[in-house]
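User: Sequence in, structure out. Go.
Assistant: Echoing your sequence, followed by the structure tokens.
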Amino acid sequence: MSLQMKLTAITLDCPDPEALAAFYQQATGLEPHPESNGDFAGLKGDDGLFIGFQRVDGYRALSWPDQTVPQQLHLDFAVDDLDGAEALLLELGAAKPEHQPGDDDRWRVLTDPAGHPFCLSRRPI
């Protein structure tokens, strides 16, 4: 018998939970958790997914693509319009690292305002 697990939550360390939650709320449309505060903020989806953001004193943003401060995870988001999604996310405060691995027409690597890398990929047709 194989173990069946359903991902229900992801929590990211950051210096400002409310600001990072606001970035991802604008990017994803997920609803803010009503008990969010300056130490821990969250977003919830209709499907039960919860994304949390927890304050870490002395937080150091990772340094992707080098590993001076290594990434410990990254998120992937599928979008219909890669160029449009990138432009909107840059307006919201994301950054686009100079180094872009692979095919720029299929995916892009951005970083959120706290420095976490995430990928945008073209949704399969």
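User: And one key feature?
Assistant: Strands lie at 9-14, 31-32, 40-44, 50-55, 75-79, 107-111, 117-122.
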